[in-house]
Amino acid sequence: MPAYVALLRAVNVGGTGKLPMSDLVAMAKSAGFQRARTYIASGNLVLESDSSEQQIKAVLEEALAGYAGKPVGVMVRSAAQMSEVLAANPFPEKAPNRTVVVFLDEAPPDDWQAGMVAPGGEEARAGTRELYIHFGEGMGQSRFKLPAAARGTARNINTVTRLAAMALE
After folding, report:
1. DSSP per position, 25-94
2. What tens-digit pLDDT sequence spans the chain (169 residues)?
3. Could you give the CA distance from residue 23 to residue 47 in angstroms, rounded to a whole number?
4. Do 151 and 74 meet the contact criterion of CB atoms below 8 Å apart?
5. Are 38 and 155 spatial neighbours (Cβ–Cβ below 8 Å)?
6. Domains annotated on the chain, with CATH
7. pTM (two decimals)
8. How crowded is residue 92: how many other Cβ atoms within 10 Å of its Cβ?
9. What share of the chain is helix, strand, coil (3-state, %, to 5)?
10. What residues pair up with 132 in beta bridges, in sequence order?
11. Is residue 73 within 8 Å of residue 9, measured between CB atoms?
12. Contact 90, 132 (CB under 8 A)
């Protein structure tokens, strides 16, 4: 059965967007997904399903909206696509904890750099359905802005690496 990675937007351990990962796994299992498991408490779900990427996205978004009472965006990638995202990293020599992938539903727009502000020397590159950003000094104090990334969800390269490996297990 094919493996997929589902990445939830605006989900965290506490505060707004709180969703216990045990509830996410239960939700996925009740939707019929197999081998549902999470990685760190920030909305990373690995599952197996014979459904398409679009079907998985629709089922999870509907279940999450019912749970949260508001829309929760979900980006879905196959195991092979996650490996491709890693292979396409334009910053392989940079620190993986300072390089993020912003997962999008669609290809970045042609003008994806419009409105970008990189006062700390941050670098950005477009991928297939991703944006890659390297935060040289780290994300904590960065004033970096990239409007094209607003509809996506970001994970650092360490997390992407682990999710890609989990999807292949």
Report:
1. HHHHHHTT-EEEEE-TTTTEEEEE-SS-HHHHHHHHHHHHHHHHSS---EEEEEHHHHHHHHHT-S-TTS
2. 999 999 999 765 455 567 888 999 999 999 999 999 999 888 899 999 999 999 999 999 999 999 888 888 999 999 999 999 999 999 999 999 999 999 999 999 999 999 999 999 999 999 999 999 999 888 888 999 999 999 999 999 999 999 999 999 9
3. 14
4. no
5. no
6. 3-80 (3.30.70.1280), 84-168 (no CATH)
7. 0.93
8. 11
9. 30, 25, 45
10. 101, 125
11. yes
12. yes
Structure tokens at 105: 């539903």
Instruction: In whole angstroms, give the CA distance from residue 88 to residue 50.
Output: 26
Assign residue 136 a region (left: φ > 0; alpha: ψ between -120 and 50; beta: otherwise). alpha
